[in-house]
Amino acid sequence: MTTYVFDYDVSADEQGMRLDVLVAGLGIEALASRSAAVRLIESGRILVNGQPAAKKRIVLEGDAIHIEVPPRSGEQSFVEPDYSIPLDIRYEDEHIIVLSKQAGLVCHPARGHYTDTLVNALVAHCGLSNLAQVQGEDRPGIVHRLDRDTSGLMLAAKTDLAAARLQDGIRTRNIDRRYITLVHGSIAHDTGMIDAPIARHVTDRTRMAVSDALNAKGAITTFTVLERFEAGRFDDGYTLLECHLFTGRTHQIRVHMAYTHHPCVGDPLYGRAATAKARNRDAALKSEMGLDRQFLHSYRLAFEHPITNEPLSFKDVPSDDLLAVLEELEERSMGRTEYGKEMLATEMGAF
User: Fold this and answer.
1) Are residues 146 and 219 in the same domain?
2) Active-site residue numbers?
3) Which of 107, 122, 226, 308 gets the most CB atoms within 10 Å of its CB?
4) Phi-psi group of 136: left, alpha or beta (phi > 0 → left; psi -120 to 50 → alpha; rest → beta)
5) CA of 161: how far to CAs of 130, 317, 327, in Å?
6) What CATH number has the domain bearing residue 160?
7) Predicted model pTM
8) Based on the domain organization, do 232 and 149 belong to the same domain?
9) 290 close to 320: Cβ distance less than 8 angstroms
């Protein structure tokens, strides 16, 4: 088995606790006792805000705890290959892979998903020694991530140099990453920018939220309207958007759209069905257009090859479940914007 990585942000209720006590109470199987937590702290495998800490460290709200749990004694540290997971590879050479990830596939091993991830498929395809290790031994090949139920284009790297240069390209915004999403409601302006920092939700640790906490990270998303759809019996209409990421925070587009009161259709965490009161839940579910995952697809990647500097550009038509939603809405279209007409014809094809 491999080293497992856990990241946790201290909540207001946990402020003032000792680090070892907090870690022992997180429910991580290998750290169920305080003595086990202490051993990991003393070995330097638990960091607070990126720095080693003492076991008696008093934690503060917003502190970022990073935990690396090594393999148990006698276990071999490696990521198991899974040859059954299909890879839709769009480009591959000795340095990089561009692929289209299917919805439902977790990117790398994490709690509940240790052997059935994209990483396990990449190891089966390339071999562990032929994948970059800059993200850690449990994330070979990973350059950036897509949420489990977000589909579309993403990058993987075979060498550490390629991975480092691609990650630098993401940080400096030299890699063009664009998504298509369907959101609730009608957005009046054809273009917009959401500049709102994101941190982990203070009460629900599975969610992220726009936040002014000290540990919140800057997040910028721009959007352009492609098409609008009129309201129906169970909804207030929809807007089809192209979103452009300038940062890469966890759940960024989903959090930003929910923050503007236009959540992504089908979103199980931030969508309307997830937050509706019981008496409104049936109507909220009907307004999700039959989707059981967020309508969010990474449709375009454009960048310079990290080694050869060759300009590369890829596009990916949304998967059938998303296209079915757009087909169902076709009669309710209020018309495409000028940009929408051009983009949907040239980038997506005439769907």
Assistant:
1) no
2) 147
3) 122
4) left
5) 12, 30, 43
6) 3.30.2350.10
7) 0.77
8) no
9) no
At 159, list the tokens.
């060498």
Q: What average pLDDT does the segment 253-258 reach?
A: 97
The answer to whether the CB of 292 falls within 8 A of the CB of 266 is: yes
Which tokens hold the place of 167? Answer: 């990650």
Q: What is the pLDDT of residues 268-322, one digit of tens each?
A: 999 887 766 545 666 666 788 889 899 999 999 999 999 999 999 999 999 999 9
Domain contains 74: no
Percent of the chain at pLDDT exceeding 90: 56
185 and 300 co-located in one domain: yes
Euclidean distance between CA atoms 294 and 104, whole angstroms: 11
Residues paired with 221 in a beta bridge: 194, 245
Domain interval for residue 265: 176-346
Number of structural domains (the chain) is: 3
- For CA atoms 321, 323, 325, 328, the dihedral sign is negative
- Is 148 in the same domain as 191? no
Q: Are 295 and 182 in contact (CB under 8 A)?
A: yes
